[in-house]
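4.2 Preliminary Data

To establish feasibility before requesting continued support, the project team ran the inverse folding procedure on a target of 570 residues. The structure was first converted into the token representation described in Section 3, and no sequence information of any kind was made available to the design step. The complete token record follows.
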């Protein structure tokens, strides 16, 4: 019989043990081939060997779905996990973020479920609503050809609807630990029939206080259940739970694909040093310099999210937020817009974005440094997934610069200090060199403008005196009130008001011409008298322009402009 026409049971058996699936097969009419093989087995065996998924025990229908998704070969953790999980063993899956852990446990789970049984046979738990819904979508995609239905039991969503869906007795339930336990206590989820339990992001669930819910579900499940713990990092609490709840587990540790930290090598780790008040401007400039298709921005404090979104939207960015205080519907909608590309920037907290897989996400910005190494791993791990390149950029103040060095030492990764200049991202050392060259050019004496011939004052200084004390020619310094030796450039033509000492602070020596003082005095007086009026007019003009500019601007921008010092008086 050709394998494409086999029953689901035959396909499953062929996926797990190809030789056993062909042994004893019969030809049409009851004829048998020599050696107990069917006529099509010789051509089918090379196809199985050519398909890396089938050779690891996966069903042909699942292998077809993987091919449709553009997945050509299994990752290291998948190759290690599939044969062991298909055999029913307990397991520990630990590998870098973005290495395919979800498919590593989900495909064997789906293949082992029986769609004909009207009972829930497997439960998958995740720490957050977003990660749980992500797993639900994957389970629906790959469960459809197998006839496996999935129901989501997620905290924050309407409980009544979830209880209604549980009446259909789905083979698979995916949810958050608290809601799964609540439904079980209402007798709507019979745990005694559950024979597979998977705890995704185990370390995070335990750190968020979900350990009691997980253990209650494990206690209620079947005694001969299969239990799987999955995480990129491994905490002490997770190790204790492994000892208590897992029976002779195998361990798929694929951390060798990246660093021991659990981060792939395809991620570049940058940090930018800036003042706290300049961080939003750095985010704006960084996004415009790199032009990423989408950017995920992490914050530590949810109180800053509103201000951050308002400022980024004012700058013209399509931004949304993802954090625990928003409703489940709003969070789902924000994530959907981000996945579809309608939102370019998503501001999120660590809890909300844990385990998210955003296709094409190339830039992660940590607006504030991660609280510890584990948080950094799960932030940076949102990019650089499945071998794709990615950038993790952390913004630190000068006082927080040591955090980058500390994280790099603990995780075994190299942080590169970067800076922004003229719309480009450059090394910080290059930026410092440019600044030093610019400062040297401004302070070089050769770049100063020499005084013009016939003038005893610096170019641009008011006639009748200089505001500073300079020596002859403007190069030296003279005490105020002292008269330098008059030179040719210091003596005015006959009829002038007298002699001006070059560089003196407006020092005046009575002249030789009788009529000169009146003429020179009136000229100087007029210019001095007009200066206050002109200055007041300029101030009024600047104030009017500033007022016009502030029209329509948000309050925070007005306050920022008011706090800035006014320009110099003309």
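Position-by-position output of the design step:
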């Amino acid at each position: 019989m050709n394998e494409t026409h086999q029953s689901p049971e035959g396909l499953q058996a062929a996926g797990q043990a190809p030789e056993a699936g062909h042994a004893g097969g019969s030809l049409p009419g009851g004829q048998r081939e020599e050696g107990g093989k069917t006529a099509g087995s010789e051509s089918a065996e090379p196809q199985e060997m050519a398909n890396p998924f089938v050779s690891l025990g996966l069903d042909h229908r699942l292998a077809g779905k993987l091919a449709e998704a553009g997945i050509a070969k299994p990752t290291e953790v998948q190759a290690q996990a599939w044969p062991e999980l298909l055999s029913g063993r307990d397991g520990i899956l630990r590998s870098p973020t973005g290495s395919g852990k979800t498919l590593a446990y989900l495909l064997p789970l789906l293949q082992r479920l029986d769609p004909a049984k009207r009972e829930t046979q497997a439960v998958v738990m995740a720490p957050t609503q977003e990660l749980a819904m992500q797993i639900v979508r994957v389970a629906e995609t790959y469960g459809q050809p197998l006839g496996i239905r999935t129901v989501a039991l997620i905290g924050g969503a309407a409980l009544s609807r979830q209880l209604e869906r549980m009446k259909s007795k789905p083979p698979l339930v995916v949810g958050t630990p608290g809601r799964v336990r609540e439904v079980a206590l209402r007798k709507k989820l019979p745990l005694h029939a559950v024979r597979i339990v998977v705890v995704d992001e185990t370390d995070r669930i335990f750190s968020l206080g979900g350990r009691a819910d997980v253990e209650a579900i494990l206690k209620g499940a079947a005694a001969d259940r299969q239990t799987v713990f999955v995480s990129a990092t491994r905490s002490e609490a997770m190790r204790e739970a492994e000892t208590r709840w897992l029976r002779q587990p195998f361990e798929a540790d694929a951390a060798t694909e990246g660093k021991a930290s659990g981060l792939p090598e395809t991620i570049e780790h940058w940090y930018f040093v800036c003042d706290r008040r300049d961080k939003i401007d750095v985010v704006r400039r960084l996004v415009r310099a790199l032009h990423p298709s989408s950017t995920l921005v992490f914050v530590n404090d949810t109180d800053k999210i509103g201000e951050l979104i308002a400022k980024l939207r004012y700058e013209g960015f399509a931004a949304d937020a993802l954090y625990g205080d928003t409703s489940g519907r709003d969070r789902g909608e924000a994530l959907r817009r981000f996945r579809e590309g309608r939102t370019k920037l998503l501001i999120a907290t660590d809890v909300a974005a844990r385990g998210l897989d955003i296709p094409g996400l190339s830039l992660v910005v940590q607006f504030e440094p991660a609280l510890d190494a584990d948080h950094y791993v799960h932030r940076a791990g949102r990019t650089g997934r499945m071998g794709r390149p990615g950038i993790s950029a952390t913004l630190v103040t000068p006082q927080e610069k040591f955090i980058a060095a500390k994280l790099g030492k603990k995780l075994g990764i190299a942080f590169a200090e970067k800076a922004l200049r003229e719309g480009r991202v450059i090394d910080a050392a290059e930026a410092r060199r440019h600044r030093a060259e610019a400062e040297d050019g401004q302070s070089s004496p050769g770049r100063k403008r020499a005084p013009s011939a016939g003038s005893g004052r610096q170019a641009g200084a008011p006639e009748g005196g200089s505001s500073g004390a300079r020596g002859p020619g403007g190069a030296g310094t003279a005490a105020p009130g002292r008269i330098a030796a008059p030179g040719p450039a210091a003596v005015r033509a006959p009829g002038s008001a007298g002699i001006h000492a070059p560089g003196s602070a407006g020092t005046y020596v009575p002249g030789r011409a009788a009529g000169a003082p009146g003429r020179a005095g009136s000229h100087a007086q007029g210019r001095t008298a007009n200066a206050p009026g002109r200055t007041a007019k300029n101030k009024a003009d600047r104030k009017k322009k500033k007022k016009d500019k502030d029209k329509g601007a948000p309050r925070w921008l007005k306050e920022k402009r008011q706090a800035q010092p006014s320009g110099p008086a003309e």
